[in-house]
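Researcher: I'd like a structural prediction for the single chain below. Treat it as a standalone chain; there are no partners to consider.
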Amino acid sequence: MAHEIDFTTMAQGSAMYAYQPAWHGFGTVVQEAQTSADALRIAGLDWDVRLTDLAADMGADAIGERYRPIATHRATYRADTGRALGAVGLRYQPLQNREAFAWMDEVVGESLAIWHTCGSLRNGRQVWMLAKLPGDLEVTSSDVLNKYVLITNSHDGTGAVRMFPTSVRVVCANTPRLAISEVDSNRSDSGLPLGLKLFHTAGSLSKRVQKARELLGVIGKSHDEFATVARAMTSKQMSSQNVSDYFGSLVEGRKDRTRDKVLTALWDRFALPTNEAGHGATVWTAYNAASEYADHELRVTGRGDVRAERKFRSVLFGSAHNFKAKAWAEACELVTVA
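Model: Treating it as a single chain, here is the predicted structure.
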């Protein structure tokens, strides 16, 4: 079966998880967060990306040279395996995995053990790194969120380097508002930074990497602002009709049968002891029902390991992201933060 997780050089899969594995069970599980050097080694990310010229195979009947250079693009490849990763423009400059880790070392202090999750997908074409930041966010005395920063990087030319804050709700291990979006501004309508975006060009990486290090300092403020909005959500009571309207907004456009299944799942999540029983019928309760549904129940296709891999990718980068982003935006519309 085809897996998203990279198995190029590691039989267990190129990924590392602190304390417990992800859905698929691949990768290496460690009992504590790691330093950047150890995380690179354990996750099998200690390799370089290089550039090489491209040529087109014009076929056996080509007039003149069969292989002709492509002057407008180059290819990226892994130095350890020689495996091609993608075709990129002439201005593209790789951001090595160790350089991406070094950004966070710069922010929180070199060699601190903060790296909780990292790995590569699709033979190394995409890399992600999740680092835990100091301190927690207390929405209520019984609802605490851990603070993280997520960095994603592609080596095949399909996307920019992205860094943005996220959080994990301790009580049920879901990830509120974990959303990647196209970032034209550093701030969302709710006032929260959406993240940082760096392009793979010499100018971007020489000038904006230092700027990124400076801007990563706002992540702590971003988490505080998130907690402020979350507390406002805990204070906003909702009637049954309000909750129905909110959930209905999240399933607009779906076929009746699918919509009904999702609505039932959302109401079931809403009624869990960690939600309604713990916080009452509030916007925060409704939002967390949506966030938990996206993390734990949102349907993906496939079977067995393939399904597990697609689920993992969905939560990190795909449809589960998008569902939670919409749920957060709709919830923010329901509250006013002073």
